Amino acid sequence: MTSAATEAVVKKPLIPRSSLVIAIKAIIGITGLFVAWELIVLITNPPRFLLVGPSAAFAELFNRPGYFASNAWVTLQEALAGFVLGTALGVLCGAALHYFPAVRTFLYPALVAIDTIPKVALAPLFIVWFGFGFESKVFVAMAIAFFPLVINTFDGLSSVPHELKELARINKATTWQRLTKIEFIYAVPSIFSGMKISISLAVGGAVVGEFISGSKGLGYVILLANSQVDLASMFAAFIVLAAISLTLFYVVDLAAKRLVPWKTYAK
């Protein structure tokens, strides 16, 4: 039996050890925050219409799991749809800004101007265009998630070293070869960085849309709890929203580490 035959095959784990360590540290940090929050409530004993502890919020979650799960599912669908649309359009727009200088001259200032408009102000406009249903919330989420992808895609494509461009030109590489073999490879880590920003923004955008015209979703739960001065339900919705955002962020982060192995990430 040769040494090659006896050598154990080491498979790359599905979840890198570094990601597990980061997740454990995050759980410890969040647990510490909850403990501090509960202690503040126990010590100060504020009225329930001003502040409740995390124990009251979790009790509300456990008492009505179906209510929060169904509304969380609505918000998650809206956020993911907006994130996918924002990512696709942001990458295409960022590439257009890079490859077409004339487009960049006119379009980039307009994008910056549009991005300065509060997205809450745009939400009623999307309701006029797309109605009170699912679509208007998706487009609010897309509008918020869009801009980071534009900037990161443009920066990523612009970061290709001049030497590599010259090497491709000397070897008579086609435009498609330069795009797929060099420029896109350099842009992918930057695109993933933009996606990690946009995924949390998309969740917030979906909630903003629900604030304006929602009859379901976690944004609607927060508004309803506010009208009833039910802080336990409100904080329970906050906790679910934070859990969704953190989970989606780490999913994108894990995908980046699996799909972009040449990129060095901080431990």
UniProtKB/TrEMBL annotation:
The keyword Cytoplasm does not apply. InterPro entries: MetI-like (IPR000515), MetI-like_sf (IPR035906). It is found in: Cell membrane. The chain crosses the membrane at residues 20-43, 79-100, 107-132, 138-157, 184-212, 232-252. CDD domains: TM_PBP2 (cd06261). Signal peptide: none annotated. PANTHER family: ABC TRANSPORTER PERMEASE PROTEIN HI_0355-RELATED, ALKANE SULFONATE ABC TRANSPORTER-RELATED, MEMBRANE SUBUNIT. This is Nitrate/sulfonate/bicarbonate ABC transporter permease.
